[in-house]
Amino acid sequence: MRVLSFVARSSLLAPQASNHLTTMLHAAGTSETEPRPPPKIIQGGMGVRISSWQLAREVSRRDGLGVVSGTAMDVVFVRTLQDGDKGGHFRRALATFPNQLMVEKALDKYFIPGGKPADKPYRSLPLWALEPSRQTEEATILGNYCEVWLAKHNDDGTPTGGLVGINLLTKVSLPTIHSLYGAMLAEVDYVIMGAGIPSKIPGILDSLAEGNDCTLPIEVSGATADDESHAVKFSPKSFWNGSGSPHFAERQLNRPAFLPIVSSTTLAQSLLKRSNGRGPNRGIDGFVVELHTAGGHNAPPRGWHFEAKDTDEPAYGEKDMVDVKSFAKVAKGLPFWFAGSYGKREKLREVLEGGGNGVQVGTLFALAQESGMDHAIKQSILTELVTNHKLHVYTDPAASPTGFPFKVLEFEGNNVSTLSDPKVYDARPRVCNLGYLRSPYLKPNGEVGYRCPAEPVNDYVSKGGDADATVGRKCLCNALCADAGFPQVRFFTNPETGNKDIYVEPGLITTGDDINESKHLVKKNEDGTWAYTASEAMDYLLSGLEINDKPNTKTFEPVRV
Ligand SMILES: Cc1cc2nc3c(=O)[nH]c(=O)nc-3n(C[C@H](O)[C@H](O)[C@H](O)COP(=O)(O)O)c2cc1C
């Protein structure tokens, strides 16, 4: 077999193009002079909190890139504290945060020793807006800091030395800068972003690393296309001034490598030309190429326009496929990983031989023991798999308020009912109380308002939204928090009995089309539950390199800068 591709490709890395990747590889390597190869396996970021710090840490210990999800981390943070922070992990991470006054404030407000009663609602945070409350800013920074810090450290607080990334959705734009800043304070190695076109992120990473102010323009419906006055602004100086420790703003932070997620060669080329970072590749350090069979949100098919009330799965064709060798031609020598049904050992080998650096895998890791998926939901899915029930994944054109197709596992397991069941969906009293997927719009008085097509229909329409656009929309914010074991509990008046009842938010499970393929790893534990570990998933994926040949063990020699 020929020498695997990443060795040859490394010499193609242009010096400026690979700055962040090589600096980071050195910094995270075993010593200053011992660079390591880029990872062959990226465990994909899976929000909300499915790619938990425990999962990311395990993968990074095995020389993969472990990726935590930064999506809704402010809510995960305050809910974890209200659940009593079992094991004391967040408090362990918080003890290392540079400003302990901020930590004390958060603990005073949210930490409940022993946890809140299961039938009491979680205390909420003010929703994200163009001008967020200080409380929300701090919870976002602290939450992302904790999740990355925990993924990078052993239980005794020593660094694992593994590589850790953070994943954010471009469409969930209001918390982006603060999430990145929290992750960078914890020395995140990679930032990976899709679900939109993240061309403004490289420049923000450059600015945050140097402690400079930065701005992320936000699209406001009804405002003119060139109106960039609507933006989230963040100033490290003002932030630290506000917490009484202005000197922290002077600290230089490592600039993480940035990998946008793309679904076409055209988008990759456009990002290389139009992103706002430094250097010839404009701050892009590589790509994840994600195809439409992947879990989570998918890029729409070429030329697809969603019509309100449409329930047909989007039809993908040849033009939506990307070939590894063709992508290698447009990648300008940057590393890249393929995703979307690439969680198979033969697929890893195929990408390496085609000129790529490896694969990003989601579904296989989402069901692993260390993932943050709620225990009952995970057991239910694994039980279905081992009893040979074929699970079906539907590409829902309407579910996500983002407007992107969203993969939904059609699933009604033992004692688990999800919004994929029309009865459960219809019975859910609509509410918008987390608000990550709200879009800003211009009100007649010139102020900015926020609306989400999954909110109560009357509210959406009163804000100028189209009633048809609300059909079939699902509150992913609440459902995905429920999947991670943080369901909100609320009181509502039962329309049939008139009684005040407790409503517990149901989940909505997303996985890739290939979910049935995870079955071969599942084993029975002594206590009768089903499981496999992230490390076993890594063993399986890497075993593809041993099928006909020994895996390449050479490290690549990154360009020194
Ligand atoms: C449960 C789940 C949640 C996901 N959430 C996100 C997310 O928040 N952001 C993102 O960029 N990708 C997300 N993904 C996509 C994964 O990061 C990964 O690219 C994809 O799962 C790869 O395809 P596979 O599922 O066939 O392995 C999610 C996937 C799953 C299964």
Helices, strands, pairings?
Blueprint: H1 5-10, H2 19-28, E1 41-43, H3 53-61, E2 65-69, H4 73-82, H5 89-94, H6 100-110, H7 134-152, E3 163-169, H8 176-185, E4 190-194, H9 201-210, E5 214-217, E6 231-234, H10 236-242, E7 257-262, H11 265-274, E8 287-290, H12 324-330, E9 336-339, H13 345-354, E10 358-361, H14 363-366, H15 375-386, E11 392-396, E12 406-410, H16 422-427, E13 439-442, E14 448-451, H17 457-462, H18 476-483, E15 489-493, E16 500-504, E17 523-524, E18 530-531, H19 534-542
Parallel strand pairs: 1-2, 1-10, 2-3, 3-4, 4-7, 7-8, 8-9, 9-10
Antiparallel strand pairs: 5-6, 11-12, 13-14, 15-16, 17-18
Helix pairs in contact: 3-7, 4-7, 7-8, 8-9
Bound molecules: flavin mononucleotide.
Structure characteristics:
561 residues, TIM Barrel, 8-stranded parallel barrel, two-stranded antiparallel ribbon, disordered N terminus
Outline the structure in words:
The chain has a domain at 5-300 and 318-374 and 517-546: TIM Barrel (Alpha-Beta Barrel). Helix content is 30%, strand content 14%. The chain is built from 19 helices and 18 strands. It has helices at residues 5-10, 19-28, 53-61, 73-82, 89-94, 100-110, 134-152, 176-185, 201-210, 236-242, 265-274, 324-330, 345-354, 363-366, 375-386, 422-427, 457-462, 476-483, 534-542; strands spanning 41-43, 65-69, 163-169, 190-194, 214-217, 231-234, 257-262, 287-290, 336-339, 358-361, 392-396, 406-410, 439-442, 448-451, 489-493, 500-504, 523-524, 530-531. The protein has an 8-stranded parallel beta barrel with strand order 1-2-3-4-7-8-9-10, surrounded by 8 helices. Strands 5-6 form a two-stranded antiparallel ribbon. Helix 4 (73-82) packs across helix 7, helix 7 packs across helix 8 and helix 8 (176-185) crosses helix 9. It starts with a helix and ends in a 19-residue tail after the last helix. Mean pLDDT is 90; it is low at 1-19, 26-33 and 549-561. Bound molecules: flavin mononucleotide (FMN).
